[in-house]
Amino acid sequence: MSSQTTKFLKFGSAMVVILLALGYLAYTGVQESKSYYVTIKELRGLGDGAYSKRLRVAGNVQPGSIRRSGTNVNFVLVENDQLLNVVYNGTEPPPDTFKDNAQALAEGKFNRDGVFYAKQIQAKCASKYAPQQEAPAGGTSNMSAVPSSGNSTDN
After folding, report:
1. Radius of gyration of the chain (CA)
2. Is 3 helix (H, G, I), strand (E, B) or coil?
């Protein structure tokens, strides 16, 4: 073989190895960041498949169930009379909106001991985003009148 062919084969082989390595890294990165959203009832029905996947589970925080210890929090999620014990061992404290009866989304892994180990928690205070209630009929409105500038064109 000529030296030019040898150089071409070496370069081609190096390119194939690099492309395979990049493909492997991309595939494993996607697999690690992929998470499945399930309800508590669906989580219980997954069987052995629940223990190997990264999952997201939503529910309301059961009143009186929050136990804090630094950035670690134990609590119970409730959804349609289904309960799920959750242990959060994150690097950041839970959000300020994480309170009793708040809607919460826990992301992590379900363990064979029946406890969901969350690495991330998101919480939303439902009352903060609820629309304002309308005034009752015949009642006073809480809207104030906008003062006119005095130069009306309806004269």
Report:
1. 28
2. helix
Largest Cα separation within the chain, whole Å, is 100
Distance CA(150)–CA(152), nearest Å, equals 6
* Domain ranges (residues) in the chain: 1-34, 35-126
| Alpha-carbon span 60 to 100, nearest angstrom | 8
CATH architecture of 35-126: Beta Barrel (2.40)
Q: What is the chain's pLDDT, residue by residue, as a tens digit (155 residues)?
A: 678 888 888 888 888 999 888 888 877 776 665 567 777 888 777 777 777 778 888 888 888 888 888 778 888 888 888 888 889 887 787 877 788 888 888 888 888 888 889 888 888 765 555 555 565 555 554 444 444 445 545 44
